[in-house]
C-alpha cells in the first residue's frame, strides 16, 4: 500500500488520482473523473499509466469532462496509450457511459444518454443489471465518412478496380509482403480495412504488417488498420490500432469494417464483427447512421501516482 499512500515523503496530493479501469471486449481503458476538477495530463504521464509493466496498463485513457453541449451528459477526452489523442473510440464510449451510470452521474432508469466527443455527440441507449450497473449499450456512431479527402488519405484512390463496386476510398498499397487493397473509412477517426481471402487470421502477422501500414505515408494522420475475413457467422477481424498496436477489439474499426463489407457486397447492412475479445453487433441503418451494440465492464479501481514514462 505504500505506493498508494498520499502522505509518504515526496508525494503530493495533486499527483495522485483515483481511477477506474474498464474494458469493452478486452479493449481496456483507464477512466479519470475530471467533472469536478480539471485533469490535464501530459503524453508522458498517459504513456506511463498505460504501460503494462510499469503502469496500470491499458489501450488508452479517458478523461470524463463537463460538456458545454446542451443535452450531453459529459465530454469524452480520449487519448491512446502512446499519448496521442483520437477523435473517437467505440469501445471506449460504452465504458464512458458505464462510468457515468455506475457512478450516479446519469440515472440508471434513464436508459439513455448522449456522449459529447471530438467527433460530435453520440446518443447511447443502455441496459443495466439488477443493481443498476450498465452492462451493455448501443451507440449511434453517426454516419461513416467515405470521402478520401476527409478520411484522410494522401494517395490516388483506385476506385472500382479493387473491389468490383464503386468505392471512393479504395486504395492499393505495396509492401514487402506484396500489395494490399484497403477500403478507407472514417468513423470520426481514420480506418484502413483490408479484406483477406484464404488467410488464417489467427496466424496472420498483424503486429508487423499492421505497424507497416499504420505509419504508411498514404495516411498522413496514421490509420487504424483492420484485417478482415468474411465468414458464415459474421466478419472475423483483427486490428492494429493507431497509437497502441494490436488490441483485442476496436469499436470504430468494427463499424468501418462492416460499412466497407456492405459497400463492397460482402455483407448485408446488419452483421456481427467477430473480434479477438468477442463480438460486436453492427447495423448500418437506413438513415446512414451506424449502430454499434456491445458490452462494457469494470475491471478494478485504484489510485495512481502521476509519473512521466522514461523515453525508450
Ligand atoms: N479502440 C478504439 C479506437 C481508439 C482510437 C484509435 N486508436 C485512433 O487513434 O483512432 C475503438 O474501440 O474504437
Automatic annotation (TrEMBL):
Pathway: Amino-acid biosynthesis; L-lysine biosynthesis via DAP pathway; DL-2,6-diaminopimelate from LL-2,6-diaminopimelate: step 1/1. One of its GO terms (molecular function) is diaminopimelate epimerase activity. The record marks 191, 241 as: Could be important to modulate the pK values of the two catalytic cysteine residues. GO terms for biological process: lysine biosynthetic process via diaminopimelate. Keywords: Amino-acid biosynthesis, Cytoplasm, Isomerase, Lysine biosynthesis. Its main location: cytoplasm. It catalyses: (2S,6S)-2,6-diaminopimelate = meso-2,6-diaminopimelate. InterPro entries: DAP_epimerase_AS, DAP_epimerase_DapF. It comes from the Bacteria. Belongs to the diaminopimelate epimerase family. This is Diaminopimelate epimerase. It comes from Enteroscipio rubneri. The lineage of its organism: Bacteria, Bacillati, Actinomycetota, Coriobacteriia, Eggerthellales.
Amino acid at each position: 500500500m505504500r505506493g498508494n499512500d498520499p502522505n509518504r515523503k515526496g508525494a503530493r496530493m495533486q499527483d495522485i488520482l483515483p481511477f477506474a479501469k474498464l474494458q469493452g471486449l478486452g479493449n481496456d481503458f483507464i477512466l479519470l473523473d475530471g467533472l469536478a476538477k480539471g485533469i490535464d495530463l501530459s503524453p508522458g504521464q498517459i504513456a506511463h499509466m498505460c504501460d503494462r509493466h510499469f503502469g496500470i496498463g491499458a489501450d488508452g485513457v479517458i478523461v470524463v469532462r463537463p460538456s458545454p453541449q446542451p443535452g450531453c451528459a459529459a465530454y469524452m477526452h480520449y487519448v491512446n496509450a502512446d499519448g496521442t489523442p483520437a477523435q473517437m473510440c467505440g469501445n471506449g464510449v460504452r465504458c464512458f457511459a458505464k462510468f457515468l451510470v455506475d457512478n450516479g452521474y446519469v440515472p440508471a432508469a434513464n436508459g439513455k444518454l448522449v456522449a459529447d466527443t471530438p467527433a460530435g455527440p453520440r446518443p447511447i441507449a443502455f441496459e443495466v443489471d439488477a443493481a443498476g450497473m450498465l452492462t451493455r449499450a448501443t451507440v449511434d456512431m453517426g454516419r461513416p465518412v467515405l470521402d478520401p479527402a476527409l478520411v484522410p488519405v494522401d494517395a490516388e484512390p483506385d476506385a472500382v478496380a479493387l473491389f468490383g463496386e464503386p468505392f471512393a476510398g479504395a486504395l492499393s498499397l505495396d509492401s514487402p509482403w506484396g500489395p494490399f487493397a484497403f477500403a478507407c473509412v472514417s468513423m470520426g477517426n481514420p480506418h484502413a480495412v483490408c479484406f483477406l481471402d484464404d488467410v488464417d487470421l489467427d496466424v496472420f502477422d498483424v503486429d508487423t504488417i499492421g505497424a507497416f501500414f499504420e505509419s504508411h505515408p498514404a495516411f498522413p494522420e496514421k490509420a487504424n488498420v483492420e484485417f478482415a475475413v468474411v465468414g458464415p457467422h459474421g466478419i472475423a477481424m483483427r486490428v492494429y490500432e493507431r497509437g497502441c498496436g494490436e488490441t483485442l477489439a476496436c469499436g470504430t474499426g468494427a463499424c468501418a469494417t462492416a460499412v466497407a463489407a456492405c459497400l463492397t457486397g460482402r455483407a448485408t447492412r446488419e452483421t456481427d464483427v467477430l473480434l479477438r475479445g468477442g463480438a460486436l453487433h453492427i447495423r448500418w441503418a437506413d438513415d446512414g447512421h451506424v449502430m454499434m451494440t456491445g458490452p462494457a465492464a469494470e475491471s478494478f479501481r485504484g489510485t495512481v501516482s502521476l509519473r512521466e514514462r522514461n523515453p525508450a
